[in-house]
Design a protein that fits this description.
The chain is an alpha/beta fold and about 250 residues long. It is built from nine helices and eight strands. Strands 1, 2, 3, 4, 5, 6, 7 and 8 form an eight-stranded parallel β-sheet that branches.
Length: about 250
């Protein structure tokens, strides 16, 4: 089995960036997804250039921080800040989200990453908003356009027009919060799910920006500690589990 450890939220803050780099240099993380509109973006790009074998994707964002493209009628407030997650979800499910605005904002984020010299190999999203009604179609359209892999979506959608878009056989969100433990991580790897699995993770060193702006903060340090424990690499080697990135699928 191939396992992709993807660290979300690259670019969120310096502490997040440094934690992700630590798990790349001393742990199983080989992929990360960058947030184009967050304060740590430039720092993340600098670190990525110093670690060129770290595979980067785009962590498309509609629910945290400010937009890259400006003010939108259905996505932001009057200052260009994204709406709360619960409101993003409500509007999408009610058909009140302007999908042209979503496409414009997604494109702005992708183009900012490309302009920084990064050629992303996969797309996912913050708070999994790419799976919301309507938005998922925009997400797949752009994945096809840019020829990248994606974090798992409803598999039935990867047919017809989008049959060329690829993802892993399975995806785990379980290494998170109270289940961000060594035992749970070993269980996730043992259970597997097909020939390939993506394991979402959020390692970080806790800095002021992260601690004051994200409800998921202290547990990121627990993730960092587990992911840099040599036991996890040894565990995978003993079971023939291969580390890879999306570009290797």
């Amino acid at each position: 089995m191939k396992a992709i450890f993807n660290a979300d939220d690259y670019g969120y803050s310096k502490g997040v960036n440094l934690g992700i780099i630590e798990t790349y240099q001393n742990g199983p993380v080989r992929s990360t997804t960058i947030m184009a509109g967050m304060p740590g973006f430039d720092h993340a790009i600098t670190l990525a250039k110093a670690n060129p074998s770290l595979n980067l994707g785009v962590h498309l964002t509609l629910s945290t921080g400010s937009s890259v493209g400006g003010v939108y009628k259905t996505l932001t407030d009057g200052d260009g800040r994204f709406l709360r997650l619960d409101e993003v979800e409500r509007k999408a499910r009610a058909g009140e989200t302007d999908l042209n605005e979503v496409e414009s904002e997604y494109e702005a984020q992708i183009q900012k990453v490309l302009a920084a010299g990064v050629n992303p190999d996969h797309f996912d999203s913050h708070h999994h908003t790419h799976n919301l009604p309507g938005i998922v179609t925009v997400f797949l359209k752009l994945a096809k356009k840019y020829g990248v892999k994606v974090r798992t979506v409803e598999k039935s959608l990867l047919s017809g027009e989008y049959e060329s878009v690829r993802t892993t056989d399975s995806f785990s969100i379980e290494f998170y919060g109270e289940t961000a433990t060594m035992a749970d991580l070993q269980r996730i790897l043992t259970d597997g799910g097909g020939e390939s699995i993506e394991i979402m993770c959020h390692p970080a060193f806790i800095d002021y920006n992260l601690h004051t702006s994200s409800s998921y903060n202290i547990k990121r340090a627990y993730e960092l500690n587990i992911l840099t424990n040599p036991e996890i690499i040894s565990f995978m080697a003993q079971r023939g589990i291969e580390l890879c990135s999306f570009s290797e699928l």
